[in-house]
Amino acid sequence: MPAPQTPLWASRPVTLLLAVPAGTALWAAFPDVAAWPLVLVAVALLHAALRRDTPWWNLLVGSVAGTVFFLPHLWWANEATDTVPWLALSLLEALFFGAFGVAWTWARRLPWVRGHAWAHVLAFAAVWTAVEQWRSAFPFGGFPWGRLAWTVAAAPTGRAAWLGGTVLVTFLLAAAGVLLALTASRLLAAARAPGRRAPHLLAATGAAAVAAVLVTGPQALPLPHDPATRAVPDPPVTATVPVPDRSRPVDAATATAQAGVLRVGAVQGNVNEPGLGSFANRAEVLDNHIAGTDRVAATHGAQAAPDERVDVVLWPENGSDLDPQEARDVARALDGAAERVGAPILVGAQEFPQTGGRYNVLLLWQDGDVLARYAKQHPAPFGEYIPLRSFVRLFSDQVDRVTTDMIAARNAPVVDVPVERLGRSVPLGTAICFEVAYDEIARDAVRRGAEVLVVPTNNASFGVTAESTQQLAMTRMQAISTGRAAVQISTVGVSGVITPDGTLVARTGLFTPDHLVADLPLRTDLTPAVVAGYWPGWVVAAAGALLTAAGLVLSTRSRRAARRGTTLDSGTTATTATTTGEGPA
Predict the structure, then answer these.
(1) How far is residue 319's CA from residue 432's CA, in Å, rounded to a whole number?
(2) Strand 359-366 and strand 369-375: pairing?
(3) C-alpha dist (Å) from residue 312 to 337, 479, 483
(4) What is the number of other CB atoms lying within 10 angstroms of the CB of residue 533?
(5) Which residues are CB-neighbours of 103 under 8 A, at least 6 positions away?
(6) Local structure of residue 231 (DSSP, 8 states)
């Protein structure tokens, strides 16, 4: 009997071509384009591109989709380093998309996944989210950039982070994307078979309705919200952002406060030479941030009325590359700025211990002393430290730009700020730069008592790219997940103030000096996502692994049975091979 002919839409050329718009749509769903509904289109296209039932082919298709996505998504890595590191990072991350293609090929071979639309949708979402979790943890601590959840900080689906963190948000988006694919498939089937149009249209309507619920349903979740909140737009980094009157504090939903209000100043000092030479003149960077602190002091400093003063001033990562504990002139400059503003300054700096290496630190500085300290727990591999240095140098001499490897600190991500007005210390949750992408750091901070989140970052080396707006989306998602107001403060932008429900209420432009003053609600409640901790990630990672392993075992048994010419227990003839992997679509 001749083998059945593969339909054109499931042929290798077509499935490989579909990977290109899938990756492109996913890129456009993220900042700076930020057309978040395209994340559903991307998932639907990838689902269609993986129709063939051949693992090695779906490895290729998934890798192509991942490459098309990551190359432009991580373009900032090329700006910050060089072509080879950018290509290496993008292609490594793209391989995880290829691994998903293989895992999904095996998982969908399970009879109940193939035979039931609901199981097909849940299995796809579970395997996708599991691979995303693995990519966020391995290798070298993982790289969570490009998670589906980061696309919907301003969309209803993003509010699900309050309930189950970014794991739940990604799961919902993956499931909704497959439902979109099934809707399209049923509509096409109705057009091809007029005699059976009614059941196909009914199935399409049902799939579309469930997808709509998954995407918009989180809008009903009881996130802390202040009706008086005024959102600001979040334009691309290339857009001109007008600077409003900074003398008036921004209200970050103070009506949601449970333990008082913290007034913060945040200084974006800017640099005069964007790119690799941005910190060539360290004194200039320090002076820029002192000048910005003086602008805060002019309206909300020690000379202002008591109810107008700021409680703390936030500086970005590397606001002072020189350690004020070692450089006396830096210490004197900070003392003067803190005295004029009448509040301690949270300073980003570098520490070089005698034992070697360096720490990326936040120092709460006042009166010549460090009141509290946080050191970065999760340095960026190949950016702040170089694993396998001698081997990697064979491919790029950019590794030699990191002359001293950063050390991963073991400390709580919390800085306690004494606030005389409140009669107590206020714990700030801290995540330095890329740490905002790691859910466990913000979650751990809140479990340890943090009442607001602060994300100091240095985006100067990334040029005019979407890196800073990608980070801002992550900060918004962490605010939703933890139920805390948040401030992202950058050396050059984009900086922002965010309410506990993720609303952006203030934003700066890129590569411009600016400052913000904001009233942040102090909150003590724990969201369901914080209470759940690691469990959502563990459960979905285990489910994805079990589905993949079970499908692989079944495939192995099928091949062995086929060689013997027998029939599987499930009733499927072992000698019949499926070439398209359609499932219930």
Answers:
(1) 12
(2) antiparallel
(3) 12, 20, 21
(4) 15
(5) 127, 130, 131, 544, 547, 548
(6) -
Is 376 known to be catalytic? yes
> Which helix or strand (DSSP H or E) is residue 456 part of?
strand 452-457
What is each CA distance from 336 to 10, 299, 351, 480, 505, in whole angstroms?
69, 17, 22, 37, 31
Residue owning tokens 């049923």: 186
Say if residue 283's pLDDT is above 90: no
Query: DSSP for 110-143?
Result: SHHHHH-HHHHHHHHHHHHHHHHHHHTTTTTT--
Q: Are 324 and 335 in contact (CB under 8 A)?
A: no
* 359 close to 379: Cβ distance less than 8 angstroms: no
Q: What helix, strand, coil percent values describe the chain, rounded to 5?
A: 50, 15, 35
pTM for the model: 0.94
The token duo for 424 is 């107590």
Q: Which helix (H) or strand (E) holds 496?
A: strand 496-498
Q: Dig out the tokens for 201 from the structure.
A: 């249209």
Residue 515 DSSP one-character state: E
The CB-side HSE value for 171 (13 A sphere, CA atoms) comes to 22
Q: Among 25, 35, 36, which Cα is nearest to 72's?
A: 25
Q: Identify which of 73, 64, 72 has the alpha carbon closest to the alpha carbon of residue 15.
A: 64
pLDDT band for 575, please (50, 70, 90 cuts): very low
Two structure tokens written together for 507: 């934003």
- The three-point CA angle 211-217-221 to 5° equals 155
Percent above pLDDT 90 for the chain: 79
Segment 232-281, tens digit of pLDDT: 999 999 988 888 889 899 999 999 999 999 999 999 999 876 655 555 55
Best CA proximity match to 147, nearest among 218, 16, 42: 42
* Catalytic residue (choose from 132, 376, 435, 451): 376
Residue-wise pLDDT for 354-401, tens only, equals: 999 999 999 999 999 999 999 999 998 888 887 877 777 777 777 777
Catalytic residue among 433, 435, 440, 451, which? 433
CB 416 within 8 A of CB 301: no
Choice among 317, 435, 440, 467 that is catalytic: 317
Strands (E), 10-143: none
Distances (CA, A) of 94 to 87, 90, 123: 10, 6, 21
pLDDT tier for residue 422 given thresholds of 50, 70 and 90: very high
Half-sphere exposure for 410 (CA within 13 Å, toward CB): 0
Separation in Å, CA 413 to CA 440, 494, 530: 10, 22, 15
Q: In what order do the strands lie in the sheet with 312-314?
A: 250-251, 514-521, 261-268, 312-314, 345-351, 359-366, 369-375
Q: In whole angstroms, how far apart are CA 517 and each of 244, 262, 315, 490, 569?
A: 12, 10, 12, 14, 68
- Verify whether residue 451 is a known catalytic residue: no
